[in-house]
Amino acid sequence: MIPFSPPRIDQRVLDEVNQALLSGWITTGPKTKLFEKKITEYCGCKTTVAVNSWTAGMEVFLRWWGVGEGDEVIIPVYTYCASANVVIHTGAKPVMVDISSDDFNISLEKIKAAITPKTKVIMPVDISGYPCDYSAIYKIVESAKDIFTAKNDNERKLGRILIAADAAHSFGATYEGKRSGALADVTCFSFHAVKNLTTAEGGAVCFNLPDSFDHEEIYKEFCIKILHGQSKDALAKTVKGAWRYDVLEPGFKCNMTDLQAAIGLVELERYEENLERRKQIFEAYDAAFKPENWAITPVYKSDNRETCYHLYLLRIANVSEAQRDAIIQEIFEQDVAVNVHFQPLPLLTAYKERGYTIDHFPEAYLKYAAEISLPVYFNLSDEQVNSVILAVKNAVKSVIG
Q1: Is the pLDDT of residue 238 over 90?
Q2: Which among 221, 263, 290, 320 has most CB atoms closer than 10 A?
Q3: Is the pLDDT of residue 68 over 90?
Q4: What 3-state class would DSSP assign to 336?
Q5: What residue ranges in 247-382 does DSSP mark as E strands?
Q6: How high is the mean pLDDT of the chain?
Q7: What's domain 271-400's architecture?
Q8: 3-class DSSP assignment, residue 146
Q9: Cα angle 137-315-198, degrees, rounded to a multiple of 5
Q10: Helix and strand tally (H, E) in the chain?
Q11: Which residues, listed in sequence order, are joined to residue 336 by a DSSP beta bridge?
Q12: 241: confidence class by pLDDT, cuts 50, 70, 90
């Protein structure tokens, strides 16, 4: 079986993790702090806090920003459930909007139509690693300043709706000459096992707010929030006699460990070769499928943006959801693992029961019903790529002729 997205674990990773184990620092320590600095340098943002997951990072951020009951956060309907879950956890309402006809990202027109005086945050999602149109989204929030109502000091200082990018897929992607992490006010990354850059589990919150915000102070405050509100972490308490600490607030527990950061440091050091290999795989898939009249290949590069080649979202033209499912089953029968990204949120029980219905999001359903995600990862060989291509073509022929 050709797996869908195994992590790249080799001797370099084992050596780095082993060194961390033997160093005496297996929780948050020097490797985590170095990883944060390296991410900030790579992305070009103002500061970074490493956390144990995208989900925890985004929820803590939303709560820190003051999002809560009575507020609204605009999200695309085509995303993983975490995007909506964190909004619900804060007590706010996720306002779902449809996606663009051009790609899998959030519709700009639908964002405009969804803004109300209750809107506090827009959360664009860079599906498959292809960045959203952030300049256009910034123009939208600037034009909505007149109806924006601030409830706290952070909101008053910003003076508009905040843009918090769900960049779980897009580490290394570029837009208008900048990397993901520096494209929005705040960006959350995922370093889950299937992501381009993994720390097994993990994530990072990258801050890139206007200069009126003190990013050094934000970093300190966030580090307190993600460690139970404790005034010192274990590293700070290693100073002789510095055992005493305070708990400044009832915080969260979602810090990254040095074991995770050790993996991430290796991954980041060799990330460009990872991107290059993924790009080669995308190009091979394009060359194989573009000539087929049943294939709709994904948009992943344009004049001002380029994906990080996370997911290859192939669509089969003019098929029903049932036919797409049958094609997937045929691919699996040929020992190739594929996936679907994603089921639009209203198809899931948790959101159906909250009154969301897929009928309101025709573009999302149209794309979902035809989509198949193909394997893309560094260790996927050319021979395996050809096997994936053959399996897909055979499966389509078997189901739709």
Answers
A1: no
A2: 263
A3: yes
A4: strand
A5: 295-296, 305-306, 312-316, 371-374
A6: 97
A7: Alpha-Beta Complex (3.90)
A8: helix
A9: 65
A10: 14, 13
A11: 2
A12: low
CA–CA gap between residue 176 and residue 132 (Å, rounded): 11
Question: CB atoms < 10 A from the CB of 193, how many?
Answer: 14
Q: What does the alpha-carbon distance between residue 233 and residue 332 come to, in Å, rounded to a whole number?
A: 47
CB 110 within 8 A of CB 153: no
Taking only the tens place, the pLDDT of each residue in 140-183 is: 999 999 999 999 999 999 999 999 999 999 999 999 999 999 99
Nearest to 189 by CA among 176, 180, 179: 180
The number of angstroms, rounded, from the C-alpha of 49 to the middle of its chain's C-alpha atoms is 15
Cβ contact 38:266 at 8 Å: no
The per-residue pLDDT for 233 is 75
pLDDT digits (tens, 9 = 90+) for 390-399: 999 999 999 9
Mind telling me the catalytic residues?
195
C-alpha–C-alpha distance, residues 266 and 268, integer Å: 5
User: Domain segments of the chain: what residues?
Assistant: 11-269, 271-400
**Closest to 282 measured CA to CA, from 259, 302, 299, 264:** 299
Which residues is 301 bridged to in the sheet? 306
Which tokens go with 53?
């997951």
Assess whether pLDDT exceeds 70 at residue 27. yes
Please state, in angstroms and as integers, the Cα–Cα distance from residue 349 to each residue in 321, 334, 338, following that order.
18, 31, 23
